[in-house]
């Protein structure tokens, strides 16, 4: 699928390159392009009072998550004409390399989030009871065997870096540095705003640490995809889950459901967790399969399909992470 997306982006490049070479910034403002909402929000906090002087574009602004996003021709034009482009840098962003090779603005500053966090980047992991994505073993049976094994051996990193407050602090600093490079006259403003925002992140990080330290339990059970690997690593939490964070699965196997139900009983957990969304069928089935059948089903917001329209009346990255802390406290009682 990722190869198809990359080819799709390459084809789009051919159709937009001529127009983009003649494109001009309609607003005359500094152009910053981000793929995901958390980064968009970090940028706005760093800009602060200078926000009106910068045009910030959020590409994933229609409810599509990172793993299913395909850039439109208009998206590509915005990227290759931008002054700063910020993206996650994982497998879902394989199309980016082709786009950047055709950048019109040769002075563009590019921020790859996975590269910026360095050794803090985590490979996807399979834990006990997690459902393997076996269907991939049976599709495209005529695919070249060598290429198949090569793909299997490539490390796949967890892309959900924004769900670690500690990563968010590192990345806020990196984004501020990028903005200072392209707009040096406002460097002091960006520095001051980034330090103030990092302090807010640090305060919340300490609240998470205190909550986990005083909690009765140290294990989470997810009946869903699990994009919170970075968060559990930060605070020393153990987890069991139905699927890895980037899984496209929506139906859990009988064995997976039974395993999670038994773990629920074994650990006497009061909560089954899911990510945001309307359907919690797997969680309901896991609860129904337990002895007590009375566990709460609560959701942690992964922010991976968020758009600007979801964030009104003061709601932002920090408020969502505070709400997630409340859910975490309930799950660890």
Automatic annotation (TrEMBL):
Residues 127-145 have a biased composition (Acidic residues). Residues 1-25 form the signal peptide. Pfam families: ZnuA. GO terms for biological process: metal ion transport. InterPro entries: Bact_metal-bind_prot9, ZnuA-like. The keyword Plastid does not apply. Residues 127-156 are annotated as: Disordered. GO terms for molecular function: metal ion binding. Keywords: Signal, Transport. Belongs to the bacterial solute-binding protein 9 family. This is Zinc ABC transporter substrate-binding protein. It comes from Treponema rectale.
């Amino acid at each position: 699928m990722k190869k198809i997306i990359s080819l799709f982006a390459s084809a789009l490049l051919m159709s937009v390159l001529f127009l983009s070479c003649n494109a001009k910034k309609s607003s005359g403002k500094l152009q910053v392009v981000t793929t995901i909402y958390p980064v968009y929000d970090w940028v706005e906090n760093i800009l602060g009072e200078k926000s009106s002087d910068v045009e910030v574009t959020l590409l994933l602004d229609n409810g599509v998550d990172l793993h299913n996003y395909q850039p439109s021709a208009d998206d590509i034009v915005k990227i290759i004409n931008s002054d700063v482009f910020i993206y996650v840098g994982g497998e879902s962003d394989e199309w980016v390399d082709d786009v950047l090779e055709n950048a019109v603005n040769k002075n563009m500053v590019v921020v790859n989030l996975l590269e910026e966090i360095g050794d803090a980047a985590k490979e996807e992991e399979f834990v006990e009871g997690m459902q393997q994505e076996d269907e991939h073993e049976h599709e495209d049976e005529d695919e070249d065997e060598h290429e198949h094994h090569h793909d299997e051996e490539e490390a796949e990193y967890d892309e959900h870096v924004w769900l670690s407050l500690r990563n968010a602090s590192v990345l806020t600093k990196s984004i501020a540095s990028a903005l200072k490079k392209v707009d040096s006259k406002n460097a002091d403003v960006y520095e001051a705003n980034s330090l103030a925002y990092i302090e807010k992140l640090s305060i919340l990080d300490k609240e998470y640490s205190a909550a986990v330290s005083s909690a009765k339990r140290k294990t989470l059970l997810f009946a869903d995809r699990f994009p919170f690997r970075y968060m559990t690593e930060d605070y020393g939490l153990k987890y069991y889950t139905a699927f890895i964070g980037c899984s496209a699965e929506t139906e859990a196997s009988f064995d997976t459901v039974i395993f999670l139900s038994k773990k629920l009983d074994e650990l006497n957990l009061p909560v089954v967790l899911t990510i945001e969304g309307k359907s919690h069928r797997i969680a309901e089935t896991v609860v129904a399969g337990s002895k007590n059948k009375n566990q709460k089903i609560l959701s942690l917001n992964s922010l991976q399909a968020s758009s600007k329209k979801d964030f009104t009346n003061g709601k932002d990255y920090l408020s969502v992470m505070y709400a997630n802390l409340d859910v975490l406290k309930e799950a660890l009682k």
